[in-house]
Automatic annotation (TrEMBL):
Main location as per UniProt: membrane
Annotated Gene3D superfamilies: CBS-domain, MgtE N-terminal domain-like, SLC41 divalent cation transporters, integral membrane domain
Cell wall biogenesis/degradation listed as a keyword: no
Cellular component terms per the entry's GO annotation: plasma membrane
Stated role: Acts as a magnesium transporter.
The gene coding this protein: mgtE
Lineage: Bacteria, Pseudomonadati, Pseudomonadota, Alphaproteobacteria, Hyphomicrobiales
NCBIfam families: mgtE (TIGR00400)
Pfam families the record matches: CBS, MgtE, MgtE_N
Compartments (UniProt record): Cell membrane; Membrane
Protein name: Magnesium transporter MgtE
Stretches assigned to the CBS domain: 208-265
Transmembrane segments: 293-313, 319-339, 370-389, 395-419, 431-454
Membrane topology of the entry: Multi-pass membrane protein
């Protein structure tokens, strides 16, 4: 175990960050020793540079308890990579102890045939629980929920409830807060474990439970569920079927994973790429290309609009060559103004600060914002340019800036809302698309203003 002590500080704090590349180079016994000593959450954080096959081999050599704790904290994509690298006996050991909802999320990252193999390797009980989750649509609350929970009945006493919890007849994801149901599993409320423990043994659960309990339906969107839990500060939220039966619970940690994934997805698409879903250095170059090439091609076609505008106003450029000097300035400011607006609205839509029905209010607010920004920038630009170039050229640029900033803010605000109405990810219509559209329309405005002011 000496290797871990020499490669990693005992407190495993931020001092160890400089050793990440060294950890990636560890092989065989060295990596095994390091994993055995490292705290699970730090092992997960620091081994993102380690190849899944290498990590899988090392995890089979450390204590089963430590390996299981590390495996549980890995991302679903990394879990799938490790399972594919493990021999069947070791694979079954990790797979069997996973929570059904975690197992279902992991199966989304494996080839279908291998996924069927994994399911067949499970015990009949775990296979049934996993299929229960997989039967619901992707990205629904049903896919996110845990079907393993403890429910209590209202006529139970506090003493009976504690006995039911301790019996362990059903493995539960959490018992800090438990749903209260009738005999038909219809949700009646929820009760906190602390209330049961502190209550007199004869106290009825109906007297301790909270009746006004937020719940979600199995078909609700996972992101909506996660937002509900963060806004209402919920540790769990019950999940019910259409007939009102309780079928599972969503826990706070799973909700946070959803938000983290959605934020990563929005961030990627705002930059014109598809999310890769894995640590960067573990992704093959071809997969990186595949995640970017589609949107790059679409944007390249859209950018041809800019070329067409320049071609249409070729004579104007030839007569006043100075106008060409300011094209990068104008399209740069317009693109940035549109990106600012789009990013703001995409975020507001994500956290439900605004809804598609607010589109007129959003458009009016962003139009005014863009106009004021354009006015301020244009005054500054005119003061500088009039000292260097002909005042009429400075005026053309200044007036164009007002129009471009106003238009960019409006387009950047409206496009994400329109995408939301069309059930398209608003992040897709964020910075890259808005910038491309504003570039072409901004140049059109520029040359039209030039024709009016300069008479060319």
């Amino acid at each position: 175990m000496a290797v871990a002590g020499s490669w990693w500080p005992k407190d495993a704090g931020t001092e160890g960050m400089s050793f990440m590349q060294d950890i990636a180079a560890l092989e065989g016994r060295a990596l095994e020793d390091w994993l055995e000593e490292a705290k699970p959450h730090l092992a997960v954080q620091r081994t993102k540079h380690v190849a899944p096959s290498t990590l899988a081999r090392a995890m089979t050599l450390i204590s089963p308890e430590k390996a299981a704790r590390i495996f549980d904290l890995l991302s679903p994509a990394t879990q799938s990579d490790i399972l594919q690298a493990l021999p069947p006996p070791e694979r079954a050991r990790f797979l069997e102890r996973m929570e059904p909802d975690d197992r279902a999320r992991m199966l989304e990252f494996v080839p279908p045939e291998f996924g069927r193999t994994l399911l067949e390797a499970l015990s009949s009980e775990e296979r049934a629980l996993t299929r229960t989750v997989l039967d619901y649509p992707a990205k629904s609350a049903g896919r996110l929920m845990s079907p393993e929970f403890v429910s209590l009945m209202p006529e139970m006493s506090a003493e009976d409830a504690l006995l039911a919890i301790r019996s362990g007849e059903k493995r539960a994801d959490t018992v800090f807060l438990m749903p209260v149901c009738d005999a038909e599993m219809r949700l009646l409320g929820a009760v906190d474990l602390a209330q049961i423990v502190l209550a007199a043994p004869s106290t009825r659960i109906s007297d301790l439970s909270t009746l006004d309990v937020p719940f979600v339906h199995v078909t609700d969107d996972q992101e909506d569920v996660a937002r509900l839990m963060t806004s209402a500060d919920l540790m769990i939220v019950p999940v019910i079927e259409e007939d009102g039966r309780l079928v599972g619970i969503v826990t706070f940690d799973d909700a946070m994973e959803v938000l983290d994934f959605e934020n990563s997805e929005d961030f990627a698409r705002a930059g014109g790429t598809e999310p890769i879903g894995r640590p960067y250095l573990s992704v093959p170059v071809f997969r990186l290309v595949r995640s970017r090439i589609v949107w790059l091609s679409v944007l390249a076609v859209a950018a041809s609009l800019t070329v067409n505008v320049l071609d249409a106003f070729e004579e104007t450029l030839e007569s006043v060559v100075t106008l060409a000097l300011f094209i990068p300035l104008l399209i740069g400011i317009g693109g940035n103004a549109g990106a600012q607006s789009a990013t703001t609205i995409v975020r507001a839509l994500a956290v439900e600060d605004v809804k598609p029905g607010d589109i007129l209010a959003i458009a009016w607010r962003e139009t005014r914002t863009g106009f004021v920004m354009g006015l301020l920038v244009s005054v500054f630009a005119y003061a500088i340019l009039a000292l260097i170039f002909d005042p009429s050229i400075a005026l053309v640029v200044a007036v164009t800036l007002v129009f471009i900033c106003t238009l960019a803010a409006l387009v950047g605000a409206v496009m994400p809302v329109a995408a939301k109405v069309l059930s398209i990810d608003p992040a897709v219509f964020s910075a890259p698309f808005v910038t491309t559209i504003v570039d072409a329309s901004g140049l059109l405005i520029y040359f039209l203003v030039a024709r009016v002011i300069l008479g060319v």
